[in-house]
Structure formats: structure tokens, C-alpha cells
Amino acid sequence: MIKNYLLGTDPEVFLKNVITNTIITAEGIIKGSKNNPKKLDREGCAIQLDNVCFEFNVPPTSNPQNMYDNINYVLNTVTGTLPEGIEITIIPSATLEDEQLKSEHAQTMGCDPSFDAWRQTINVRPDLSQNPNLRCAGGHIHIGYENPDVNTSEQIIKALDLFLGVPSILMDTDVERKKLYGKAGEFRFTDYGCEYRVLSNFWISSREKINFIFNQVQKAVNFVNAGNVIETESELGLEIVTAINTQNTELAIKIIKSLSVLEENVIKTYATTIT
After folding, report:
1. Residue 12 and residue 137: Cα distance in Å, rounded?
2. pLDDT at residue 252 is higher than 70
């Protein structure tokens, strides 16, 4: 049983030069690093440079309002320190100009391995050969729960693919990020549970979307706690993976409707492509 779980996140966002209307590297602007994040005044909030993006942490919580408040605190705090003409932009992917990618840091990606819950394998590092200037921003969700174990975490990730990964196809229309990250079942084990790495940063932009995340995670937890298991080679398992990895809207709609993954009012609000 998954008990007393908390949600955390470490989203990545881009910086934009509003004068040239181009995405720029956060290197030299954002302080902090993976090994030494810059702590902010609010407990549990910190910032750091991640490749060309600005990444930040907020404390884990069971309350979506707390997460919304903390995300906005960080974004507003950092906005107040940015040079004139530079702003934060929440987009899943961007292609940067060559001059923004000259540093070693800007060329370093995928250092820590992630795993595929469906195939139970280590994911290969991102391949930049098709577009060396493509960069992307994640909205990873951290699930902490009592007495975590490998099997439970894998089942959580599969359930999150059903209740979050599939609906996200209709809410996040960006297709570039999946060329590098965010394939079905992408996750990492953690000491406190697991990190779901499928979603982009699209959901941090509003209170409604953050509420949506919390509601869908609750459904995934209930699904696992009820003893449901999605086998990799089952029809449902194969459909989930195909829908997410190929951004297949039609298949996503089929899964959503057949399993009541979303309430009708949520479908009308977010999935406007459903007819």
C-alpha cells in the first residue's frame, strides 16, 4: 500500500531575450548547480543551472495550493533578479542559436541515467544528432511514500503513464521534447520513492493544471493500491506506450474514454481536440 505520499517537483524553464525574441542560455545569469543549489529564503526552495535551463526545487507537499504558491514564489523571486530585457518563459522545448551553446555546460546532457518502467531497462542518453541545438524543459514529479520499494515504484510509474502521461498528449502539443526526453515510463528511483520524468513543464503554468496533476496522481495511487497491475505486453500496456511515444492523440482519446481516465468537465477544459 502507498501511504502518506507527498508530491515534489524540480521544473526546468527557459530564459528569453524579449528584445531579440530568442531563447538564451541561463548560464552566467542563474546561480547554483546540481551539486550546490542556491537556496532561497523560503524553506525548501532552491535554484540551479541545468544545461541551458533554469531549474528550481520546491518542498514536497500533499496540498496543490502549497505547490502553486511555492512555484510562483520562486518564479517571482528569480524574475526580480534578471537583467533588463530577460524574462522566464515556460515552454517544453526550444532551438537555440549556436552562440548560446558554446560552453561545455551547454553541451552536457543526460549525465545521470533514467530507467524505463515498461522494459525495465536503462534509457539511452539523448541523441542530438538530428538537431544539435534542440533543448527541452521537464516538469518532473517526485513521489515520496512510506517504505518505498522497487516494485511499487515501477507500478506507480506505469499508473502515472495511464493517468498523466496519456492525458498530457492532449494538453501538451509540443512534439520536439520527446525526441530527447519524456518517453513512456521514464523515471528514476529515489530514496523516498520515485521520480516520474515523462511530463514537460507545461503544467506549472497555472493553478488549475497543478490541481489537475494532484488529482490524477491520486487516481494513480488509488489504482495501484487497489491491486491493479498493467503488464508491459498487455493490450493496455502496449497502447499506453504507443500513445505517449508517438504523441498519438486518437489512441490517447480511446484510452481516456474507455477507462474514464478523465472526468467529462476536465476533458472539456483541457482536451479540446476530443469530439
Report:
1. 5
2. yes
